[in-house]
Amino acid sequence: MTRILIRCDASLLIGSGHVIRCRTLARELQRRGAEVCFLCRRQPGDLIGLLEQEFQVLALPEQPLVACEGLEGSDLYGAWLGCTQEQDAAQCLEVLAVAGINRISWIVADHYGLDVSWEEQLVAGLPGTDAGPQLLVIDDLADRPHQADLLLDQNFFGEATHQRYQDLVPPQCRQLLGPHYALLGPEYAQLHPLVVPRTELRQVLVFFGGVDPSNLTGRALEALMDPPLADLAVDVVLGLQSPHRQPVAELVARRPHTTLHGPLPSLAGLIARADLAIGAGGATTWERSCLRLPTLVVAIAANQLPFAEALDQAGHLQLLGVGASVTAEQIRSALLARMTESKPEKAAPALTDGWGALRLSMAMLGHQGAISLRPATAADEALLLHWANDPQVRANSFSSEPIAPKDHHHWFQKGLTDPNRLLLIATTVDGCPIGQIRFDRQFGSAQADVSEAAVDLSLDRCARGHGLAAALVRLGLQALEQHWGPSVEAVAEVLTSNIASNACFARAGFTSDSELLSESSLPRSRAVKRWHWRPAALLCSAIVAVGSMLLFQI
Protein backbone atom coordinates (compact mmCIF):
# COMPACT_ATOMS: atom_id res chain seq x y z
CA MET A 1 0.00 0.00 0.00
CA THR A 2 1.31 3.43 -0.97
CA ARG A 3 0.71 5.79 1.97
CA ILE A 4 0.68 9.53 1.38
CA LEU A 5 0.73 12.24 4.04
CA ILE A 6 -0.62 15.72 3.18
CA ARG A 7 0.23 18.68 5.42
CA CYS A 8 -1.95 21.60 4.34
CA ASP A 9 -3.34 24.85 5.71
CA ALA A 10 -7.00 24.27 6.66
CA SER A 11 -7.86 27.74 7.98
CA LEU A 12 -11.12 29.15 6.63
CA LEU A 13 -9.91 32.54 5.42
CA ILE A 14 -6.46 31.60 4.12
CA GLY A 15 -6.41 27.87 3.59
CA SER A 16 -9.63 27.15 1.71
CA GLY A 17 -7.81 27.07 -1.62
CA HIS A 18 -5.18 24.75 -0.17
CA VAL A 19 -7.83 22.39 1.17
CA ILE A 20 -9.77 22.23 -2.09
CA ARG A 21 -6.76 21.54 -4.29
CA CYS A 22 -5.27 19.03 -1.84
CA ARG A 23 -8.64 17.27 -1.59
CA THR A 24 -8.78 17.06 -5.39
CA LEU A 25 -5.30 15.52 -5.47
CA ALA A 26 -6.12 13.16 -2.59
CA ARG A 27 -9.22 11.89 -4.39
CA GLU A 28 -7.17 11.08 -7.49
CA LEU A 29 -4.42 9.40 -5.46
CA GLN A 30 -7.02 7.38 -3.57
CA ARG A 31 -8.66 6.37 -6.85
CA ARG A 32 -5.29 5.03 -7.96
CA GLY A 33 -5.00 2.85 -4.84
CA ALA A 34 -3.05 5.06 -2.44
CA GLU A 35 -3.93 5.57 1.23
CA VAL A 36 -4.11 9.29 2.08
CA CYS A 37 -3.84 10.94 5.49
CA PHE A 38 -4.08 14.70 6.18
CA LEU A 39 -2.23 16.67 8.84
CA CYS A 40 -3.91 20.00 9.67
CA ARG A 41 -3.78 22.40 12.61
CA ARG A 42 -7.02 23.10 14.44
CA GLN A 43 -8.16 26.73 14.26
CA PRO A 44 -11.49 28.46 14.85
CA GLY A 45 -13.70 27.85 11.81
CA ASP A 46 -11.22 25.50 10.13
CA LEU A 47 -12.12 23.14 7.27
CA ILE A 48 -10.94 19.94 8.95
CA GLY A 49 -14.51 18.67 9.13
CA LEU A 50 -14.79 18.91 5.34
CA LEU A 51 -11.72 16.69 4.90
CA GLU A 52 -12.88 14.22 7.56
CA GLN A 53 -15.91 13.36 5.42
CA GLU A 54 -13.57 11.48 3.06
CA PHE A 55 -10.12 11.03 4.61
CA GLN A 56 -8.27 10.31 7.82
CA VAL A 57 -7.23 13.61 9.38
CA LEU A 58 -4.69 13.92 12.18
CA ALA A 59 -5.24 17.25 13.92
CA LEU A 60 -2.33 19.25 15.28
CA PRO A 61 -3.05 21.07 18.55
CA GLU A 62 -4.63 24.48 18.26
CA GLN A 63 -2.26 27.41 18.85
CA PRO A 64 -3.26 30.93 20.01
CA LEU A 65 -3.78 33.07 16.90
CA VAL A 66 -1.03 35.59 16.24
CA ALA A 67 -1.92 39.15 15.23
CA CYS A 68 -1.18 39.56 11.51
CA GLU A 69 -1.78 43.28 11.06
CA GLY A 70 1.17 44.99 9.42
CA LEU A 71 2.92 41.74 8.57
CA GLU A 72 3.97 40.99 5.00
CA GLY A 73 5.66 38.21 3.04
CA SER A 74 7.33 35.43 5.02
CA ASP A 75 6.45 37.06 8.37
CA LEU A 76 2.76 36.96 7.48
CA TYR A 77 2.88 33.36 6.22
CA GLY A 78 4.84 32.30 9.31
CA ALA A 79 2.15 33.82 11.52
CA TRP A 80 -0.47 31.70 9.72
CA LEU A 81 1.46 28.59 10.75
CA GLY A 82 0.76 29.41 14.41
CA CYS A 83 4.20 28.35 15.71
CA THR A 84 7.77 27.90 14.51
CA GLN A 85 8.50 25.44 11.71
CA GLU A 86 10.57 23.36 14.15
CA GLN A 87 7.61 23.10 16.55
CA ASP A 88 5.24 22.25 13.72
CA ALA A 89 7.49 19.47 12.40
CA ALA A 90 7.96 18.04 15.91
CA GLN A 91 4.19 18.03 16.52
CA CYS A 92 3.60 16.36 13.13
CA LEU A 93 6.05 13.59 14.01
CA GLU A 94 4.44 13.20 17.44
CA VAL A 95 0.85 12.79 16.18
CA LEU A 96 2.04 10.38 13.49
CA ALA A 97 3.82 8.26 16.12
CA VAL A 98 0.72 8.20 18.34
CA ALA A 99 -1.37 7.12 15.31
CA GLY A 100 1.14 4.36 14.53
CA ILE A 101 1.90 5.74 11.06
CA ASN A 102 5.56 5.17 10.32
CA ARG A 103 5.79 4.00 6.70
CA ILE A 104 5.12 6.87 4.28
CA SER A 105 5.92 6.92 0.57
CA TRP A 106 5.17 10.61 -0.11
CA ILE A 107 4.86 13.76 1.98
CA VAL A 108 2.84 16.58 0.39
CA ALA A 109 3.40 20.07 1.82
CA ASP A 110 0.96 22.86 0.89
CA HIS A 111 1.44 25.72 3.34
CA TYR A 112 2.99 29.15 2.75
CA GLY A 113 4.58 29.03 6.20
CA LEU A 114 6.73 25.94 5.45
CA ASP A 115 10.09 25.76 3.71
CA VAL A 116 13.24 23.67 3.54
CA SER A 117 13.84 23.66 7.32
CA TRP A 118 10.46 22.00 8.04
CA GLU A 119 10.82 19.67 5.06
CA GLU A 120 14.24 18.38 6.08
CA GLN A 121 13.18 17.88 9.71
CA LEU A 122 10.06 15.95 8.79
CA VAL A 123 11.67 13.74 6.15
CA ALA A 124 14.56 12.94 8.48
CA GLY A 125 12.16 11.98 11.27
CA LEU A 126 10.04 9.62 9.18
CA PRO A 127 11.09 6.08 8.32
CA GLY A 128 9.78 5.33 4.85
CA THR A 129 10.89 3.17 2.00
CA ASP A 130 14.56 2.23 1.66
CA ALA A 131 15.20 5.64 0.09
CA GLY A 132 12.98 7.45 2.63
CA PRO A 133 9.74 9.27 1.82
CA GLN A 134 9.66 11.53 -1.21
CA LEU A 135 8.47 15.12 -0.93
CA LEU A 136 5.98 17.00 -3.11
CA VAL A 137 5.73 20.75 -2.47
CA ILE A 138 2.72 22.71 -3.75
CA ASP A 139 3.58 26.39 -3.91
CA ASP A 140 2.45 29.66 -5.51
CA LEU A 141 4.94 32.16 -4.16
CA ALA A 142 8.44 31.10 -5.27
CA ASP A 143 9.84 33.08 -2.34
CA ARG A 144 11.64 30.42 -0.26
CA PRO A 145 13.81 27.31 -0.76
CA HIS A 146 12.43 23.76 -0.79
CA GLN A 147 14.02 20.33 -0.42
CA ALA A 148 11.56 18.82 -2.89
CA ASP A 149 11.63 15.79 -5.16
CA LEU A 150 8.61 17.18 -7.02
CA LEU A 151 7.20 20.71 -7.09
CA LEU A 152 3.83 21.93 -8.37
CA ASP A 153 3.02 25.57 -9.06
CA GLN A 154 -0.13 25.77 -11.16
CA ASN A 155 0.05 29.52 -11.74
CA PHE A 156 0.74 31.45 -14.94
CA PHE A 157 3.50 34.05 -15.18
CA GLY A 158 3.99 34.26 -18.92
CA GLU A 159 7.56 33.67 -20.07
CA ALA A 160 8.76 33.64 -16.45
CA THR A 161 6.64 30.60 -15.51
CA HIS A 162 9.46 28.08 -15.94
CA GLN A 163 12.23 30.15 -14.31
CA ARG A 164 10.73 31.05 -10.94
CA TYR A 165 12.17 28.14 -8.91
CA GLN A 166 15.57 28.00 -10.60
CA ASP A 167 17.56 28.58 -7.42
CA LEU A 168 14.98 27.42 -4.88
CA VAL A 169 14.86 23.63 -5.45
CA PRO A 170 17.53 20.93 -5.94
CA PRO A 171 18.66 20.33 -9.56
CA GLN A 172 17.04 16.89 -9.61
CA CYS A 173 13.64 18.22 -8.52
CA ARG A 174 10.94 17.63 -11.15
CA GLN A 175 8.95 20.83 -11.65
CA LEU A 176 5.36 20.76 -12.89
CA LEU A 177 4.66 24.41 -13.61
CA GLY A 178 1.69 26.29 -15.01
CA PRO A 179 -2.08 25.79 -15.33
CA HIS A 180 -1.54 22.66 -17.46
CA TYR A 181 -1.15 20.92 -14.07
CA ALA A 182 -3.94 22.79 -12.24
CA LEU A 183 -5.72 20.56 -9.72
CA LEU A 184 -9.32 20.48 -10.93
CA GLY A 185 -12.10 17.98 -10.34
CA PRO A 186 -12.70 15.33 -13.04
CA GLU A 187 -15.87 17.08 -14.22
CA TYR A 188 -13.74 19.85 -15.76
CA ALA A 189 -11.86 17.46 -18.04
CA GLN A 190 -15.20 15.97 -19.09
CA LEU A 191 -16.76 19.36 -19.88
CA HIS A 192 -13.65 20.90 -21.45
CA PRO A 193 -14.24 19.58 -25.01
CA LEU A 194 -18.00 20.21 -24.83
CA VAL A 195 -18.24 23.96 -24.13
CA VAL A 196 -19.08 26.10 -27.14
CA PRO A 197 -17.85 29.68 -27.74
CA ARG A 198 -19.95 32.37 -26.07
CA THR A 199 -21.59 34.52 -28.75
CA GLU A 200 -23.60 36.92 -26.57
CA LEU A 201 -23.84 38.11 -22.97
CA ARG A 202 -26.93 36.74 -21.22
CA GLN A 203 -25.80 34.93 -18.06
CA VAL A 204 -23.32 36.16 -15.42
CA LEU A 205 -21.67 34.21 -12.60
CA VAL A 206 -20.55 36.11 -9.47
CA PHE A 207 -18.19 34.28 -7.12
CA PHE A 208 -15.52 35.81 -4.86
CA GLY A 209 -14.86 32.80 -2.68
CA GLY A 210 -16.93 31.24 0.04
CA VAL A 211 -16.24 33.96 2.63
CA ASP A 212 -15.64 37.15 0.61
CA PRO A 213 -14.65 39.30 3.63
CA SER A 214 -14.56 42.54 1.57
CA ASN A 215 -18.09 41.95 0.20
CA LEU A 216 -17.06 42.29 -3.43
CA THR A 217 -20.14 40.17 -4.16
CA GLY A 218 -22.28 43.04 -2.93
CA ARG A 219 -20.41 45.55 -5.11
CA ALA A 220 -20.88 43.35 -8.18
CA LEU A 221 -24.63 43.12 -7.46
CA GLU A 222 -24.84 46.90 -7.04
CA ALA A 223 -23.24 47.24 -10.47
CA LEU A 224 -25.68 44.73 -11.92
CA MET A 225 -28.62 46.83 -10.63
CA ASP A 226 -27.95 49.34 -13.41
CA PRO A 227 -31.02 49.44 -15.73
CA PRO A 228 -29.11 48.57 -18.95
CA LEU A 229 -27.95 45.38 -17.19
CA ALA A 230 -31.34 44.44 -15.75
CA ASP A 231 -32.08 41.69 -18.27
CA LEU A 232 -28.94 39.71 -17.47
CA ALA A 233 -29.51 36.48 -15.55
CA VAL A 234 -27.15 36.24 -12.58
CA ASP A 235 -25.93 33.32 -10.47
CA VAL A 236 -24.37 34.33 -7.13
CA VAL A 237 -22.37 31.83 -5.06
CA LEU A 238 -21.53 32.64 -1.43
CA GLY A 239 -20.73 30.48 1.57
CA LEU A 240 -23.08 30.18 4.52
CA GLN A 241 -20.37 31.50 6.87
CA SER A 242 -19.79 34.72 4.95
CA PRO A 243 -20.28 37.76 7.21
CA HIS A 244 -22.07 39.49 4.32
CA ARG A 245 -24.51 36.76 3.35
CA GLN A 246 -27.59 38.57 4.70
CA PRO A 247 -27.03 41.91 2.84
CA VAL A 248 -26.15 39.95 -0.30
CA ALA A 249 -29.38 37.95 0.04
CA GLU A 250 -31.31 41.24 0.29
CA LEU A 251 -29.71 42.54 -2.92
CA VAL A 252 -30.50 39.26 -4.68
CA ALA A 253 -34.15 39.52 -3.59
CA ARG A 254 -34.38 43.02 -5.08
CA ARG A 255 -32.93 42.06 -8.47
CA PRO A 256 -34.92 40.01 -11.01
CA HIS A 257 -33.38 36.96 -12.71
CA THR A 258 -30.93 36.50 -9.85
CA THR A 259 -30.26 33.31 -7.87
CA LEU A 260 -28.24 32.98 -4.66
CA HIS A 261 -26.48 29.63 -4.21
CA GLY A 262 -24.86 28.29 -1.08
CA PRO A 263 -21.77 26.05 -1.09
CA LEU A 264 -21.76 23.72 -4.12
CA PRO A 265 -19.84 20.48 -4.70
CA SER A 266 -18.55 22.03 -7.94
CA LEU A 267 -18.92 25.28 -9.87
CA ALA A 268 -18.52 23.47 -13.19
CA GLY A 269 -22.23 23.55 -14.09
CA LEU A 270 -22.59 27.28 -13.41
CA ILE A 271 -19.34 28.07 -15.23
CA ALA A 272 -20.39 26.03 -18.27
CA ARG A 273 -23.72 27.85 -18.63
CA ALA A 274 -22.41 31.38 -17.93
CA ASP A 275 -21.29 33.85 -20.59
CA LEU A 276 -19.18 35.98 -18.23
CA ALA A 277 -17.85 35.68 -14.70
CA ILE A 278 -17.04 38.33 -12.09
CA GLY A 279 -14.73 36.92 -9.47
CA ALA A 280 -11.45 36.63 -7.63
CA GLY A 281 -8.08 35.58 -8.96
CA GLY A 282 -7.62 32.39 -6.97
CA ALA A 283 -7.96 28.71 -7.87
CA THR A 284 -11.29 29.33 -9.62
CA THR A 285 -9.23 31.07 -12.32
CA TRP A 286 -8.22 27.67 -13.69
CA GLU A 287 -11.76 26.30 -13.53
CA ARG A 288 -13.01 29.26 -15.59
CA SER A 289 -10.09 28.96 -18.00
CA CYS A 290 -10.68 25.24 -18.53
CA LEU A 291 -14.26 25.98 -19.63
CA ARG A 292 -13.17 29.13 -21.54
CA LEU A 293 -15.32 31.54 -19.54
CA PRO A 294 -14.40 35.24 -20.01
CA THR A 295 -13.91 36.87 -16.62
CA LEU A 296 -13.67 40.25 -14.90
CA VAL A 297 -11.20 39.63 -12.07
CA VAL A 298 -10.48 41.38 -8.78
CA ALA A 299 -7.32 40.19 -7.03
CA ILE A 300 -8.37 39.70 -3.40
CA ALA A 301 -4.94 38.71 -2.01
CA ALA A 302 -1.40 39.94 -2.62
CA ASN A 303 -0.28 36.58 -3.99
CA GLN A 304 -3.06 36.67 -6.63
CA LEU A 305 -1.94 39.94 -8.19
CA PRO A 306 1.25 38.90 -10.08
CA PHE A 307 -0.32 36.04 -12.01
CA ALA A 308 -3.59 37.97 -12.51
CA GLU A 309 -1.54 40.75 -14.13
CA ALA A 310 0.27 38.22 -16.33
CA LEU A 311 -3.05 36.65 -17.38
CA ASP A 312 -4.49 40.10 -18.12
CA GLN A 313 -1.51 41.02 -20.30
CA ALA A 314 -1.79 37.72 -22.18
CA GLY A 315 -5.51 38.29 -22.84
CA HIS A 316 -6.86 35.48 -20.66
CA LEU A 317 -8.94 37.74 -18.39
CA GLN A 318 -9.65 41.39 -17.59
CA LEU A 319 -8.12 42.58 -14.31
CA LEU A 320 -10.14 45.35 -12.65
CA GLY A 321 -7.80 45.95 -9.72
CA VAL A 322 -7.05 44.88 -6.17
CA GLY A 323 -9.63 44.08 -3.49
CA ALA A 324 -11.00 47.03 -1.59
CA SER A 325 -9.91 49.54 -4.24
CA VAL A 326 -12.34 48.19 -6.86
CA THR A 327 -15.68 50.01 -6.84
CA ALA A 328 -19.15 49.07 -8.02
CA GLU A 329 -18.82 51.78 -10.68
CA GLN A 330 -15.70 50.10 -12.12
CA ILE A 331 -17.52 46.80 -12.35
CA ARG A 332 -20.56 48.49 -13.93
CA SER A 333 -18.41 50.23 -16.56
CA ALA A 334 -16.65 46.99 -17.46
CA LEU A 335 -20.00 45.19 -17.82
CA LEU A 336 -21.49 47.96 -19.98
CA ALA A 337 -18.42 47.84 -22.23
CA ARG A 338 -19.01 44.11 -22.70
CA MET A 339 -22.71 44.68 -23.39
CA THR A 340 -22.05 47.24 -26.13
CA GLU A 341 -19.40 45.21 -27.97
CA SER A 342 -20.47 44.80 -31.59
CA LYS A 343 -19.08 41.29 -31.51
CA PRO A 344 -17.99 39.35 -28.40
CA GLU A 345 -14.26 39.20 -27.96
CA LYS A 346 -12.82 35.85 -29.02
CA ALA A 347 -12.00 33.81 -25.93
CA ALA A 348 -8.33 33.11 -25.30
CA PRO A 349 -7.19 29.48 -25.61
CA ALA A 350 -7.81 27.43 -22.49
CA LEU A 351 -4.71 27.27 -20.29
CA THR A 352 -5.68 23.87 -18.92
CA ASP A 353 -7.66 20.89 -20.14
CA GLY A 354 -8.66 19.79 -16.63
CA TRP A 355 -6.35 16.76 -16.38
CA GLY A 356 -3.84 18.27 -13.92
CA ALA A 357 -4.72 16.05 -10.94
CA LEU A 358 -4.25 12.87 -12.97
CA ARG A 359 -0.96 14.17 -14.37
CA LEU A 360 0.36 14.99 -10.89
CA SER A 361 -0.71 11.60 -9.53
CA MET A 362 1.08 9.94 -12.46
CA ALA A 363 4.26 11.84 -11.63
CA MET A 364 3.99 10.55 -8.05
CA LEU A 365 2.76 6.97 -8.50
CA GLY A 366 3.84 6.14 -12.04
CA HIS A 367 1.72 5.11 -14.99
CA GLN A 368 -1.08 2.59 -14.61
CA GLY A 369 -2.77 0.75 -17.49
CA ALA A 370 -2.17 0.89 -21.21
CA ILE A 371 -1.74 3.94 -23.42
CA SER A 372 -3.44 4.39 -26.77
CA LEU A 373 -3.20 6.74 -29.75
CA ARG A 374 -5.83 8.93 -31.35
CA PRO A 375 -5.57 11.38 -34.28
CA ALA A 376 -4.91 14.99 -33.32
CA THR A 377 -7.81 17.41 -33.78
CA ALA A 378 -8.10 21.18 -33.97
CA ALA A 379 -8.78 21.21 -30.21
CA ASP A 380 -5.24 19.93 -29.53
CA GLU A 381 -3.45 23.06 -30.79
CA ALA A 382 -2.76 24.64 -27.38
CA LEU A 383 -1.76 21.28 -25.90
CA LEU A 384 0.81 20.61 -28.64
CA LEU A 385 2.25 24.12 -28.30
CA HIS A 386 2.60 23.54 -24.55
CA TRP A 387 4.58 20.35 -25.15
CA ALA A 388 6.67 21.89 -27.93
CA ASN A 389 7.70 24.84 -25.75
CA ASP A 390 8.59 22.78 -22.68
CA PRO A 391 12.11 24.04 -21.80
CA GLN A 392 13.52 20.50 -21.74
CA VAL A 393 12.06 19.80 -25.20
CA ARG A 394 13.48 23.03 -26.59
CA ALA A 395 16.91 22.25 -25.10
CA ASN A 396 16.96 18.93 -26.99
CA SER A 397 15.68 20.41 -30.28
CA PHE A 398 17.73 21.67 -33.21
CA SER A 399 16.39 25.14 -32.44
CA SER A 400 16.21 26.06 -28.76
CA GLU A 401 14.12 29.20 -29.30
CA PRO A 402 10.51 29.04 -28.05
CA ILE A 403 7.90 28.70 -30.81
CA ALA A 404 5.65 31.73 -31.25
CA PRO A 405 1.90 30.94 -31.00
CA LYS A 406 1.27 32.57 -34.39
CA ASP A 407 3.91 30.42 -36.11
CA HIS A 408 2.64 27.28 -34.38
CA HIS A 409 -0.94 28.05 -35.40
CA HIS A 410 0.03 28.33 -39.08
CA TRP A 411 2.09 25.10 -38.93
CA PHE A 412 -0.61 23.21 -37.05
CA GLN A 413 -3.55 24.24 -39.23
CA LYS A 414 -1.64 23.37 -42.38
CA GLY A 415 -0.66 19.99 -40.97
CA LEU A 416 -4.24 18.98 -40.13
CA THR A 417 -5.01 18.64 -43.85
CA ASP A 418 -1.57 17.49 -45.04
CA PRO A 419 -1.83 13.91 -46.41
CA ASN A 420 1.87 13.42 -45.70
CA ARG A 421 1.60 14.15 -41.99
CA LEU A 422 0.36 11.69 -39.35
CA LEU A 423 -0.04 13.40 -35.97
CA LEU A 424 -1.19 11.27 -33.05
CA ILE A 425 -1.96 12.02 -29.39
CA ALA A 426 -1.08 9.47 -26.67
CA THR A 427 -3.71 9.11 -23.94
CA THR A 428 -4.16 7.12 -20.76
CA VAL A 429 -7.05 4.70 -20.27
CA ASP A 430 -8.98 7.64 -18.75
CA GLY A 431 -8.42 9.77 -21.85
CA CYS A 432 -5.79 12.11 -20.39
CA PRO A 433 -3.36 13.34 -23.11
CA ILE A 434 0.25 12.64 -22.07
CA GLY A 435 2.27 12.92 -25.29
CA GLN A 436 2.42 13.03 -29.06
CA ILE A 437 4.14 11.28 -31.96
CA ARG A 438 4.32 12.70 -35.48
CA PHE A 439 5.40 11.24 -38.82
CA ASP A 440 6.19 13.48 -41.81
CA ARG A 441 6.40 11.43 -45.01
CA GLN A 442 8.95 12.33 -47.69
CA PHE A 443 9.59 10.74 -51.10
CA GLY A 444 13.06 10.30 -52.51
CA SER A 445 11.74 10.59 -56.07
CA ALA A 446 8.45 10.53 -57.95
CA GLN A 447 9.05 6.92 -58.98
CA ALA A 448 10.18 5.66 -55.59
CA ASP A 449 8.17 2.77 -54.12
CA VAL A 450 9.70 3.32 -50.69
CA SER A 451 9.33 6.57 -48.74
CA GLU A 452 10.70 7.83 -45.43
CA ALA A 453 8.77 9.31 -42.56
CA ALA A 454 10.61 11.56 -40.12
CA VAL A 455 9.64 10.84 -36.50
CA ASP A 456 9.06 13.44 -33.79
CA LEU A 457 7.75 12.65 -30.33
CA SER A 458 7.43 14.19 -26.90
CA LEU A 459 6.02 13.15 -23.55
CA ASP A 460 4.41 15.33 -20.93
CA ARG A 461 6.69 15.96 -17.94
CA CYS A 462 4.39 13.86 -15.76
CA ALA A 463 4.90 10.81 -18.01
CA ARG A 464 8.69 10.85 -18.22
CA GLY A 465 10.80 8.29 -16.43
CA HIS A 466 8.15 5.55 -16.57
CA GLY A 467 9.36 3.72 -19.72
CA LEU A 468 6.53 5.08 -21.87
CA ALA A 469 8.60 6.63 -24.67
CA ALA A 470 9.54 3.32 -26.33
CA ALA A 471 5.94 2.09 -25.97
CA LEU A 472 4.75 5.31 -27.63
CA VAL A 473 7.14 4.77 -30.55
CA ARG A 474 6.06 1.15 -31.03
CA LEU A 475 2.39 2.14 -31.07
CA GLY A 476 3.22 4.93 -33.50
CA LEU A 477 5.00 2.54 -35.86
CA GLN A 478 1.96 0.28 -35.90
CA ALA A 479 -0.23 3.27 -36.76
CA LEU A 480 2.28 4.35 -39.43
CA GLU A 481 2.06 0.98 -41.21
CA GLN A 482 -1.75 0.91 -40.95
CA HIS A 483 -2.01 4.45 -42.30
CA TRP A 484 0.44 4.38 -45.23
CA GLY A 485 1.07 0.68 -45.75
CA PRO A 486 4.29 -1.34 -45.42
CA SER A 487 6.39 0.76 -47.82
CA VAL A 488 7.34 3.55 -45.41
CA GLU A 489 10.56 3.55 -43.42
CA ALA A 490 10.78 5.61 -40.23
CA VAL A 491 13.83 7.77 -39.55
CA ALA A 492 14.75 9.92 -36.58
CA GLU A 493 17.55 12.41 -36.12
CA VAL A 494 18.49 12.97 -32.50
CA LEU A 495 21.17 15.10 -30.86
CA THR A 496 23.81 12.79 -29.40
CA SER A 497 23.53 14.72 -26.15
CA ASN A 498 19.87 13.63 -25.86
CA ILE A 499 20.60 10.37 -24.05
CA ALA A 500 16.97 9.55 -23.22
CA SER A 501 15.72 9.83 -26.82
CA ASN A 502 18.63 7.81 -28.24
CA ALA A 503 17.95 5.06 -25.70
CA CYS A 504 14.23 5.19 -26.56
CA PHE A 505 14.79 4.55 -30.28
CA ALA A 506 17.23 1.75 -29.51
CA ARG A 507 14.64 0.05 -27.25
CA ALA A 508 11.95 0.51 -29.90
CA GLY A 509 13.93 -1.53 -32.44
CA PHE A 510 15.57 1.23 -34.50
CA THR A 511 19.11 0.82 -35.82
CA SER A 512 21.56 3.70 -35.99
CA ASP A 513 24.15 4.82 -38.50
CA SER A 514 27.70 4.18 -37.45
CA GLU A 515 28.64 7.78 -38.19
CA LEU A 516 27.40 10.90 -36.52
CA LEU A 517 26.01 13.59 -38.75
CA SER A 518 27.18 17.11 -38.16
CA GLU A 519 24.68 19.77 -39.20
CA SER A 520 26.36 22.81 -40.71
CA SER A 521 24.02 25.11 -38.81
CA LEU A 522 24.85 23.49 -35.45
CA PRO A 523 27.99 23.70 -33.31
CA ARG A 524 30.11 20.56 -33.24
CA SER A 525 28.98 19.85 -29.70
CA ARG A 526 25.45 19.32 -31.08
CA ALA A 527 26.15 16.41 -33.40
CA VAL A 528 23.23 14.32 -34.64
CA LYS A 529 22.60 10.59 -34.63
CA ARG A 530 20.34 9.10 -37.32
CA TRP A 531 18.07 6.16 -36.52
CA HIS A 532 16.24 3.84 -39.00
CA TRP A 533 13.27 1.51 -38.75
CA ARG A 534 11.97 -0.68 -41.57
CA PRO A 535 8.59 -2.45 -41.56
CA ALA A 536 8.72 -6.24 -41.37
CA ALA A 537 7.45 -6.57 -44.97
CA LEU A 538 10.23 -4.34 -46.29
CA LEU A 539 12.80 -6.13 -44.17
CA CYS A 540 11.69 -9.54 -45.50
CA SER A 541 11.75 -8.23 -49.08
CA ALA A 542 15.29 -6.95 -48.59
CA ILE A 543 16.42 -10.33 -47.19
CA VAL A 544 14.83 -12.19 -50.12
CA ALA A 545 16.45 -9.82 -52.61
CA VAL A 546 19.89 -10.27 -51.06
CA GLY A 547 19.41 -14.06 -51.02
CA SER A 548 18.46 -14.05 -54.71
CA MET A 549 21.54 -12.03 -55.58
CA LEU A 550 23.75 -14.48 -53.73
CA LEU A 551 22.17 -17.47 -55.51
CA PHE A 552 22.55 -15.77 -58.88
CA GLN A 553 26.23 -15.04 -58.21
CA ILE A 554 26.84 -18.65 -57.16
Summary of the model, kept short:
It contains 19 helices and 20 strands. The protein has helices at residues 12-31, 48-52, 73-81, 85-99, 116-125, 186-191, 216-224, 245-254, 268-273, 284-290, 305-313, 328-339, 356-365, 381-388, 391-395, 405-416, 468-484, 499-507, 536-553; strands spanning 3-8, 35-41, 56-60, 106-110, 134-138, 150-153, 174-177, 203-207, 233-237, 258-261, 276-280, 295-299, 318-322, 372-375, 421-427, 433-443, 451-459, 488-495, 511-512, 528-533. 37% of the residues are buried.
Which range best describes the helical content: under 10%, 10-25%, 25-40%, 40-55%, 55-70% or over 70%?
25-40%
Number of helices: 19
Structural class: alpha/beta
Give the distance, in angstroms, between the N- and C-terminal Cα atoms: 66 Å
Strand content: 15-25%
Which stretches are poorly predicted, pLDDT < 50 over at least 5 residues? Answer: 538-554
* Biggest pleated sheet: 7 strands, parallel
Q: Mind telling me the C-alpha Rg?
A: 27 Å
Total beta-strand segments? 20
| Spatial arrangement of strands, main beta sheet | 3-2-1-4-5-6-7
